[in-house]
Write a structure and sequence with these properties.
The chain is α+β, with helices and mostly antiparallel strands. It is about 15% helix and about 20% strand.
Length: about 280
């Protein structure tokens, strides 16, 4: 069941990040080592300037190339309260209608009869069924692990939607909204607006990551439940805490959704077994 959250308005609060995460790894080390050069913020749209917008905060190293990072995501279900801010931020970032959700927040029941919330974005699978079945190669892997769709190639057959075991792809039935030219983009990494007759999905905000910014869902999760990580650098951050990724996953009993299907997803979940949250 979808849980609606508050609407993000222009001028949303942009609190600054801590210099150090719980592991002692600095925020700047993560951003400088894992993210590429800073870029313009205009493509985000009004109200999404973000917590890491200031160039003096980023201090990004303009080194490396696409593929020097291998992106992953961690969602701490102990923190998620089902507010839907991640969904709303994603919609605003990509100029999606309210009926089109690239991150669905489900309310589920646990073994004790209690409930918990589970956001499900694209799982960025390393063995993605959607890529395998696409007859025209519109769905494909990028060197840094992102699975994207080229809507200039997509023929709208929806075979990828049928193949995805996570149900995270959507079909663009309607004409796209009329948005200002400065927000438009036709790249597979960031297609805005979506094109009628094609399939869309979470793109991991890879365009933002490559410019030294966070995905919208990470940026605007007020519970700080979503972490973006780099498997190469073995670090992850939610914008407040920076952790050693492998230790964080191991120490908190992380799991991957439907991992038994052999999709090798890059989104990890933490259900927790009594560990302290250290708020």
């Amino acid at each position: 069941m979808r849980i609606s959250g508050p609407r993000i308005e222009p001028g949303a609060s942009t609190s600054s990040l801590n210099e150090k995460g719980s592991s002692g790894i600095t925020r700047r080390r993560f951003l400088g080592g894992a993210l590429l050069g800073a870029g313009a913020l205009g493509v985000l749209g009004e109200g999404l300037a973000g917590r890491v917008a200031a160039a003096e905060d980023l201090e990004l190293a303009e080194t490396g190339k696409i593929g020097d990072q291998q992106w992953a995501m961690v969602i701490d279900l102990r923190r998620c309260d089902g507010c839907g801010e991640c969904t709303t931020a994603c919609q605003k970032m990509h100029h999606l209608p309210e009926t089109q959700e690239w991150i669905k927040v489900h309310e589920l029941e646990d073994a004790t009869g209690g409930t918990y919330f589970m956001p499900i974005p694209c799982q960025m699978c390393e063995n993605a069924p959607c890529v395998r079945v696409c007859p025209v190669g519109a769905s494909f892997y990028q060197e840094d692990g992102a699975v994207v769709i080229d809507q200039n190639v997509c023929i709208g057959c929806r075979m990828c939607m049928a193949a995805c075991p996570y149900g995270v792809r959507t079909f663009n039935w309607e004409d796209p909204p009329n948005i200002p030219e400065r927000f438009r983009s036709s790249t597979p990494e960031f297609t805005v607006p979506q094109k009628k007759g094609t399939v869309g999905k979470c793109d991991n905000c890879v365009h933002a990551l490559r410019e030294g910014r966070f995905p919208a869902c990470v940026e605007f999760c007020s519970m700080e439940a979503i972490y973006v990580g780099d498997l190469v650098d073995d670090t992850a951050t939610n914008g407040h805490d920076t952790v050693v990724l492998s230790d964080f996953l191991r120490d908190n009993d992380a799991f991957r959704f439907k991992e038994e299907m052999g999709t090798a997803p890059r989104v990890y979940y933490i259900a927790g077994h009594g560990q302290d949250l250290d708020y």
